[in-house]
Amino acid sequence: MANPGLKRIVERIQDLPTLPTVVTRILKLVHDPESNAADVQMILGRDQSLSTKVMKLVNSAFYGYAGKIKTLHQAVVILGFDTIKSVALSATVFTAFAGGRKNFDRDAFWRHSIATGVAARLLARECRMKEIEESFMCGVIHDIGKVVLDQYAPGDFDRVLAYVQEKNCLIYEAERAVLGSSHAQVGRWLGMKWGLPAEIVDVIFYHHQPANAQRAPKQTAVVHVADILARTRKLGSGGDAKVPPLDPAAWEKLGLDEGRLKGILAVLPDEFAKADLFVQMARG
Ligand SMILES: [Fe+2]
Ligand SMILES: [Fe+2]
């Protein structure tokens, strides 16, 4: 591991939750042209608790079929693989990192994460991208490194949070100063450990430096801008009060004008309200 700060942190992390096999198999299934709704039903059906959560979420106001989707089969046929993948991974992450400590408002953190997912999905739709559900998922998990730090390196994270207060700086600036690493690096480490697809790991790693993204530059640009939109609208909090600078290259990559951006900002709070079931689920 090239970064000594990151090495020092992750060496002390024990009992990190593993990604359930069910989710790993669903993530793989999405890229398998031979797969069908029955496969998803079979795989998810093995995990009763996860499939119950998935069914609740696909029936939430967010997808527009409130209460009408009765089976996993229907869910895949109506909403598609990508939605099921996104919902299953989000629900898993909420379960894996349930709880919290008083120094870091986990509820505000999840609201920030979900709002970023909602904004990313709106941006991706506006840019006519195919992977809008993946944008949502990447938004939901973009800051996951913060929860790893909060849960598994609480002393280090407390020092970061104190530094943020003292200097009124961004959390990643404090992490670099205090730890010599950042939540983006910790998030990439977790994503790799979990065997998430390389593109998703890249989005997590580069969400503050989208210009450096290699595997999924547009998706990274979407999440970078979405993070800023969620902060601008003050939906939740990622642990710092400042809004990071918008990378002009990322903005250019999306090809949106100011009018369309304003349109997204205007509907974001309502769209976020529709995603309330995700927020409730993250609360446990
Ligand atoms: Fe971040
Ligand atoms: Fe964020």
List the helices and strands and how they pair.
Layout: H1 4-11, H2 21-29, H3 37-45, H4 48-58, H5 72-79, H6 81-96, H7 106-126, H8 132-141, H9 144-152, H10 154-167, H11 171-179, H12 183-193, H13 198-206, H14 217-232, H15 248-254, H16 258-274, H17 276-283
This protein binds fe (ii) ion (FE2) (2 copies).
One fe (ii) ion binds next to helix 7.
List its traits.
284 residues; mainly alpha; Hypothetical protein af1432; 68% helix
Can you walk me through this structure?
It is built from 17 helices and no strands. Helix 2 (21-29) runs antiparallel to helix 6 and helix 13 packs across helix 14. The chain is an all-alpha fold. It has helices at residues 4-11, 21-29, 37-45, 48-58, 72-79, 81-96, 106-126, 132-141, 144-152, 154-167, 171-179, 183-193, 198-206, 217-232, 248-254, 258-274, 276-283. It is 68% helix and 0% strand. It has two domains: 18-96, no CATH class; 99-284, Orthogonal Bundle (Hypothetical protein af1432), CATH 1.10.3210.10. Bound molecules: fe (ii) ion (FE2) (2 copies). One fe (ii) ion binds next to loops.
